């Protein structure tokens, strides 16, 4: 846009502000805001005054929103989705050298023993999706699920693998998945952040805040961490002694004093600040409201197994639905405690996995059903997965113990998606008979990222941002869309 | 306005400035169209180089357009310019023919096509990219008539000619002092400073003020905050466990350097290569921590090589970005597509930083210790004593000394058959750090009634500490079993210089001592280097012996003053023969040596016990023999390597001086060499950006082909050349900028100037930009009277919300204990910076996590920021402090006067009538509100600030707190005026 056009825009904007009473529209402003590389913008004006205003995708989107359930630590998918009868047969044999030569593992050295799953597997639904008995209720939504058994990554430690999956680079400093998506598409609700993060399990994911950081994108695209216990967003509560009524009076004073200043200086960004303060004021109500699950029906609360007032995974699943319902673009859930090394019984593949799954399986099933029942599943992409796989052999440190466990493994693992334009009751990709290598239709992390962006109507090669002289994208310089899984 | 965006597709980069509401036109315009080559180069770079540039691997059709030779081969026909393939392609309608191809982006604009046509017709001159040519001082235009216009004003006003804009009026003195104080010190002016300036009627009142702020200690704190972003300084090591890292002495070095006005070239050399200087000072060693701010990964199972390589890559990228505004990162994986830097050159540069001793170790070694002044003096004294002792131990005793000793011995031992030692205490010492003393048994043999008897069992044993249920008495229980499991073995803590001792109850003659150590798996060697001694009744040592090795069996020490053979020689009646004499000489010499040795070990022990004040990781060159081999990493993968390379600078730039060392020191001098075309420009631009919000080159991180062209190229060159002429004196540069009329303009914007130049690139008004995160915090604390002026030292932990989640793999990073006392109110620069969880309120105001160097901060304007300044207890506390000043520090009687006083404390300027009336209105509303709710009043007036002095009217205080909360949230408060 040239300067003449800017003038037009500027007039439009002044007009816009004059026209709108204080209180309309969330007007975020990054100083010199710009459109996304190659992205057709809904309107240049919106783009300028409100970077999280909804934007048009590159092409027709299958999904509008994402609920991304990340199981930090990485669940043992050989014991959940990827059934390997041959591995079961050969349990206890030495791991063949071909799978060990030149490899490093996090906690295993020497020659480990093969470990077939101790779980019982069955096929479910019309699509015949394999699932183990660790997942008692998920089979009810088997025909909504698209399981990818051929995922693979480059990293075998938690933090780099999480960063690789969620930012496209194993090192810190790049924007996260949700940041890229809100940067590309904006958000539908101007009273709430476009990208919300919910944690459970008492510990942040290993990658820390970088897992939802904005990297070099403006901070409006950072994931906003909300909590179902205590203040739902940092500093959302007025200080002790400041009632909502008095807060209103202070905002009136701020706005009027700012207006006086704007008149005398002719400074347009002061108008923006007024709008920001109004939005903050609305968020003081809208955020606690959306985060309060008490107004859900008893049946709904029970179906998720949610407990109002607590901070747990079930609550977060229910909150995810509420947030998406309100137009939040990207909801990222992290649940801590999926690192099944077998170092103690609660991290073992038998009872440990059963009880950890019990806290996950029901809420996820309820979430998919709830979305479906409300007609939201077709627009909402639900993603479930960890940051890497786990070895088909017993973890070195715990090889002699009673508890079964597996080490970190990057070469193959399973995730699943549901809704949002993916095929239901569908299984994509295969691993070899022992579960060491992808046998067909491998999906690398960058392919997976490209595919999710594609479902959202974005070309991963065109969703770029220039930083330090270089165009960056979520998929770095890689990634092929996996068309087979798209309905 | 002539400016036209040339690359409609390229995303716009965010700038630090918040002063404009509309996107900047990408100012590709380099002033008057005198430089068509520059503009064409910019078009070629943005549109063509990706496929027809320096990178051979991605070059299409074997055509390169980044050199004239390449272009003349087939694309440009100078004989028939209109016949040139280049012009045919950019003008084609055929989608298969047109360049750039549609999938690579939009076609050239008409204007660009015209420019290309003219350029080809004029002979297609290639100049080097502008920033690769060394700046020279251009002629200063004479446009501004005013007598106090400086060179900056001349260049700026020359650029304004023809724009239809005129410079704004000078800013009011109150506005000016607030702007200047915030710019130079990061703090608002105090009421006294304002008063002094307003009342200073001298001609150079403003210059006096500038000099005053340049000399304030707060100056260094403000500018260090900028540099720490570049240095990616943090108090934690990054990655998953994000351990705490002690490196604050480097932060203090930066503050000190700014306050000393250290020249930028020295500042550069110290940070990149202080350790390689001759006899580096302590501060020069500390400076090298600049490149130890890289991340360290101590998660289990990670490869040190991988993360060391990542750190070196970061050093390369940071160095080139910070000093030369050049993106090297692309060349890590492939030859640069836009700038002529090859992948090989990248790894030659890498080699400079690959030769230091650090290696992604959890203990961050090598680390440097810093001592307090007193301790440092004592260390010096000990060291010289040690040197003297060592020299003495090499001396051979003179014949006279030997004679004197023999005479003395004769006198003492005449007629005695033995020289038994008598003592009351037997002691075992294990000198050193992190030692464990674990003894199975100690026997002390004396002669009682002619019988040889172990008298130790009668005594009482003690030791330095007890661990693992191993009390001292177990070494005199008569059981020599060394198996720890059998509970007959002592055990101390792991500590410095552990000891064990038995008190025999009375002074007895001692013949020999036997000692048994704890056994098992070579564990007795823990006692290697132990020392056995006998003390008299006053615990004065009368005999000792050092053992280099502990043995896994009974270890016997005969306790006697003189060996029997020596005693015989001493007592020999007849004169000594040569052999006898020489035996005595040798014994005496050994004795002397042993005495000196004891002295030396005492001094060493003291030296080891002197605690350092702090430590920090530093750079340390690897010795010649241990130098690493650097290889090109294929596609930037450290495991996949190619050609071996050695340190060199990229060929496109000025050469390294022939006699320069090929190490970090040589590199540092190269960066600040007079011939370096970039460093001075990058430095000038950075200061400009800090003051005006946008650099003369907007992309302050990128001066290469992909960067923006400067808005005032001649001004940039003039200031850069001037900086070098003035020996990199940055005070001089900054003073030039803030003394300019351009800086001193009012920031009030006419609708004309807003519509013609929304982003103020032409500088027809003063800079109005959002304050940084640090300034917003510091200002709130300053106006509330809470700010501590304490400088330097360990980072502090001001209150932050407890969010109840901890980072993975580390309990350590969660222990944030709100600081108390003045540490609660220190400037933002002292707030502990943890990369995995940056201080939330500052993070909301756009500080980054400092994992990598941040060349430019974004300035956003978001509702989450409003929530911080409205509700964060830090800002609530500041409002309470400000309210108390409004009540207590003024003689004002009326609410209106108090409102005015508070307003002026915050914004310095006087409020308009409308403003003060509006504030009074709020006060009255709030007062009515609190009169009906005294509990709320008490809470808002005092939580979290301490209770006010007794007799205070809490309702009134709460109402003023409400007002103060509003003042701290005014747009004007968050902006530079």
Describe it:
The complex is a heterodimer of chains A (487) and B (977). Chain A is α/β, with parallel strands linked by helices and 487 residues long. Chain A has a single domain (3-28, 38-485), classed as Alkaline Phosphatase, subunit A, CATH 3.40.720. In chain A, 30% of the residues lie in helices and 17% in strands. Chain A has 11 helices and 18 strands. Chain A has helices at 3-19, 44-49, 85-89, 158-167, 177-185, 244-265, 268-291, 298-304, 313-325, 351-373, 445-455; strands at residues 29-30, 65-72, 121-124, 129-132, 145-152, 195-200, 224-225, 330-336, 380-385, 389-394, 406-409, 413-418, 426-428, 430-431, 438-440, 443-444, 464-467, 470-473. In chain A, the strands form 5 sheets. In chain A, strands 2, 5, 6, 7, 8, 9, 12, 13 and 16 form a 9-stranded mixed sheet that branches. In chain A, strands 3-4 form a two-stranded antiparallel ribbon. In chain A, strands 10-11 form a two-stranded antiparallel sheet. In chain A, strand 14 (430-431) and strand 15 form a beta hairpin. Mean pLDDT of chain A is 85; it is low at 1-48. Chain B is an alpha+beta fold. Among the domains of chain B are: 36-127, no CATH class; 420-560, Galactose-binding domain-like (Jelly Rolls, Sandwich); 871-974, no CATH class. In chain B, strands 5-6-2-8-9 form a 5-stranded antiparallel sheet, with no helix packed on it. In chain B, strands 4-3-7-10 form a 4-stranded antiparallel sheet, with no helix packed on it. In chain B, strand 12 and strand 13 (641-645) form a beta hairpin. The longest helix of chain B has 32 residues, at 578-609.
């Amino acid at each position: 846009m040239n300067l003449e056009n800017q003038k037009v825009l500027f007039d439009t904007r002044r007009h816009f502000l004059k026209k709108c009473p204080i209180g309309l529209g969330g007007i975020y402003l990054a100083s010199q805001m710009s459109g996304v590389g190659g992205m057709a913008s809904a309107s240049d004006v919106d783009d300028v005054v409100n970077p999280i205003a909804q934007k048009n995708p590159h092409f027709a989107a299958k999904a509008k929103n994402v609920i991304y359930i990340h199981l930090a630590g990485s669940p043992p998918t050989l014991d959940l989705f990827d059934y390997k009868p041959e591995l079961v047969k050969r349990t206890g044999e030495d791991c063949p050298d071909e799978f060990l030569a030149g490899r490093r593992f996090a906690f295993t050295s020497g020659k480990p023993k093969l470990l077939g799953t101790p779980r019982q597997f069955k096929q479910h639904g019309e699509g015949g999706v394999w699932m183990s008995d660790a997942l008692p209720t998920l089979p009810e939504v088997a025909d909504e699920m698209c399981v990818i058994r051929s995922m693979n990554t480059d990293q075998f430690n938690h933090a780099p693998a999480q960063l690789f999956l969620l930012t496209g680079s194993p090192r810190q400093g790049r924007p996260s998945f949700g940041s890229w998506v809100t940067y590309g598409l904006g958000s539908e609700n101007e009273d709430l952040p476009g990208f919300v993060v919910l944690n459970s399990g008492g510990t942040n994911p290993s990658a820390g805040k970088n897992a939802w950081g904005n990297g070099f994108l403006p901070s409006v695209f950072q994931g906003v961490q909300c909590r179902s216990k205590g203040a739902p967003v940092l500093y959302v509560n007025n200080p002790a002694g400041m009632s909502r009524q008095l807060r209103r009076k202070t905002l009136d004073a701020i706005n009027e004093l700012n207006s006086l200043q704007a008149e005398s200086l002719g400074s347009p960004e002061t108008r923006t600040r007024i709008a920001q303060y109004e939005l903050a004021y609305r968020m003081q109500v809208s955020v606690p409201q959306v985060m309060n699950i008490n107004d859900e029906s008893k049946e709904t609360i029970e179906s998720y197994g949610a407990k109002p007032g607590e901070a747990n995974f079930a609550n977060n699943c229910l909150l995810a639905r509420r947030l998406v319902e309100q137009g939040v673009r990207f909801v990222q859930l992290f649940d801590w405690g999926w690192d099944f090394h077998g170092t103690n019984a609660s991290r073992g593949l038998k009872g440990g996995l059963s009880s950890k799954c019990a806290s996950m399986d029901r809420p996820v099933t309820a979430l998919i059903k709830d979305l479906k029942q409300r007609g939201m599943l077709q627009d909402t992409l639900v993603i479930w997965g960890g940051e890497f796989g786990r070895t088909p052999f017993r973890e070195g440190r715990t090889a002699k113990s009673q508890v079964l466990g597996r080490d970190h493994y990057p070469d193959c693992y399973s995730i699943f998606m549901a809704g949002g334009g993916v095929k239901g009751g569908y299984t994509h990709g295969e691993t070899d008979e022992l579960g060491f290598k992808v046998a067909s239709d491998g999906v690398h992390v960058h392919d997976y990222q490209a595919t999710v962006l594609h479902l959202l109507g974005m070309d991963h090669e065109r969703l770029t941002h220039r930083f330090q002289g270089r165009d960056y994208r979520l998929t770095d310089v890689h990634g092929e869309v996996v068309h087979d899984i798209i309905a | 306005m002539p400016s036209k965006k040339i690359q409609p597709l390229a995303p716009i980069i965010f700038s630090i400035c918040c002063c404009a509401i509309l996107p900047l036109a990408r100012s590709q315009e380099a002033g008057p169209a005198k430089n068509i080559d520059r503009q064409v180069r910019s078009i070629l770079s943005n549109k063509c180089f990706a496929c027809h540039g320096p990178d051979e691997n991605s070059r299409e059709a074997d055509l390169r357009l980044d050199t004239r030779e390449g272009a003349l081969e087939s694309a440009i026909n100078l004989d028939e310019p209109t016949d040139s393939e280049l012009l045919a392609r950019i003008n084609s309608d055929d989608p298969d023919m047109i360049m750039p191809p549609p999938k690579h982006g939009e076609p050239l604009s008409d204007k660009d096509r015209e420019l290309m046509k003219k350029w080809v017709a004029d002979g297609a001159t290639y100049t080097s990219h502008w920033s690769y040519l060394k700046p020279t001082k251009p002629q200063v235009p004479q446009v501004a008539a005013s007598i106090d216009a400086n060179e900056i004003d001349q260049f700026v006003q020359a650029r304004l000619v023809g724009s239809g804009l005129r410079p704004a009026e000078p800013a009011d003195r109150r506005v000016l002092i607030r702007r200047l104080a915030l710019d130079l010190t990061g703090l608002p002016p105090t009421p006294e400073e304002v008063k002094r300036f307003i009342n200073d009627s001298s001609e150079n009142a403003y210059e006096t003020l500038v000099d005053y702020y340049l000399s304030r200690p707060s100056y260094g704190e403000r500018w260090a905050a900028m540099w720490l972003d570049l240095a990616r300084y943090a108090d934690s090591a990054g990655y998953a466990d994000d351990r705490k890292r002690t490196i604050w002495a480097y932060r203090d070095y930066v503050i000190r350097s700014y306050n000393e006005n250290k020249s930028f070239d020295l500042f550069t050399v110290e940070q990149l290569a202080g350790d390689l200087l001759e006899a580096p000072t302590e501060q020069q060693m500390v400076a090298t921590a600049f490149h130890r701010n890289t991340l360290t990964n101590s998660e289990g199972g990670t490869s040190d090589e991988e993360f060391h390589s990542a750190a070196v890559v970061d050093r390369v990228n940071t160095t080139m970005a910070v000093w030369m505004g050049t993106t090297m990162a692309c060349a890590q994986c492939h030859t640069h597509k836009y700038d002529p830097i090859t992948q090989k050159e990248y790894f030659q540069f890498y080699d400079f930083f690959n030769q230091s001793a650090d290696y992604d170790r959890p203990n961050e070694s090598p680390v440097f210790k810093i001592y307090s002044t007193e301790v440092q003096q004592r260390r010096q004294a000990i060291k010289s004593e040690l040197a003297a002792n060592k020299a003495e131990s090499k001396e051979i005793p003179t014949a006279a000394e030997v004679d004197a000793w023999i005479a003395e011995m004769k006198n003492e031992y005449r007629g005695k058959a033995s020289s038994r030692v008598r003592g009351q205490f037997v002691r075992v010492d294990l000198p050193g750090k992190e030692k464990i003393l674990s003894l199975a048994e100690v026997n002390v043999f004396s002669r009682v009634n002619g019988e040889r008897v172990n008298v130790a069992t009668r005594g009482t044993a003690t030791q330095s500490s007890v661990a693992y249920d191993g009390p001292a008495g177990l070494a005199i229980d008569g059981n020599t079993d060394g198996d720890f499991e059998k509970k007959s073995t002592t055990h101390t803590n792991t500590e410095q210089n552990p000891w064990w001792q038995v008190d025999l109850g009375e002074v007895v003659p001692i013949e020999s001592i036997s000692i048994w150590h704890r056994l098992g798996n070579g564990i007795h060697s823990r006692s290697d280097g132990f020392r056995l001694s006998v003390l008299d009744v006053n615990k004065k040592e009368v005999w000792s012996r050092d053992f280099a090795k502990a043995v896994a069996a009974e270890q016997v020490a005969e306790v006697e003053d003189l060996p029997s053979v020596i005693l015989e020689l001493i007592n020999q009646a007849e004169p000594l023969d040569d052999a006898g004499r020489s035996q005595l000489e040798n014994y005496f010499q050994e004795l002397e040596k042993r005495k000196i040795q004891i002295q030396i070990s005492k001094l060493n022990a003291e030296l080891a016990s002197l605690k350092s004040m702090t430590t920090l990781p530093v750079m340390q060159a690897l010795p010649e023999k241990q130098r690493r081999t650097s290889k090109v990493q294929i596609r930037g993968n450290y495991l996949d390597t190619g050609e071996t390379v050695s340190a060199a600078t990229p060929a496109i730039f000025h050469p390294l001086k022939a006699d320069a060392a090929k190490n970090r020191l040589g590199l540092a001098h190269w960066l600040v060499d007079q011939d370096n075309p970039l460093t001075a420009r990058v430095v000038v631009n950075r200061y400009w950006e800090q003051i005006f919000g946008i650099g003369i080159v907007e992309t302050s991180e990128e001066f290469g082909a992909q960067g923006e062209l400067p808005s005032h190229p001649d001004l940039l060159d003039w200031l850069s050349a001037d900086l070098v002429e003035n020996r990199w004196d940055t005070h001089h540069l900054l003073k030039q900028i803030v003394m300019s009329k351009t800086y001193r303009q009012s920031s009030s914007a006419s609708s004309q100037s807003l519509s013609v130049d929304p982003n103020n690139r032409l500088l027809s008004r003063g800079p109005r930009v959002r304050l940084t995160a640090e300034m917003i915090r510091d200002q709130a604390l300053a106006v509330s009277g809470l700010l501590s002026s304490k400088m330097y030292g360990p980072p502090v932990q001001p209150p932050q919300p407890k969010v109840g989640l901890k980072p993975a793999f580390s309990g350590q990073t969660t222990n944030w204990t709100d600081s108390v006392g003045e540490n609660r109110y220190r400037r933002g620069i002292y707030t502990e910076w943890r990369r995995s969880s940056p201080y939330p309120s500052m993070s909301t105001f756009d500080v980054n996590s400092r994992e990598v160097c941040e060349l430019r901060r974004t300035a956003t304007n978001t509702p989450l920021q409003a929530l911080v300044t409205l509700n964060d207890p830090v800002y609530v506390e500041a409002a309470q402090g400000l309210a108390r000043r409004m009540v207590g520090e003024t003689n004002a009687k009326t609410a209106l006067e108090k409102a005015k006083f508070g307003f002026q404390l915050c914004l310095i300027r006087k409020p308009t009538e409308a403003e003060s009336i509006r504030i009074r209105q709020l006060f009255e509303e709030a007062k009515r509100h609190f009169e009906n709710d005294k509990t709320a009043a008490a809470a808002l007036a005092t939580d979290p600030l301490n209770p006010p002095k007794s007799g205070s009217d809490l309702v009134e205080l709460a109402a003023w707190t409400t007002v103060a909360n509003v003042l701290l949230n005014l747009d004007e408060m968050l902006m530079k005026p």
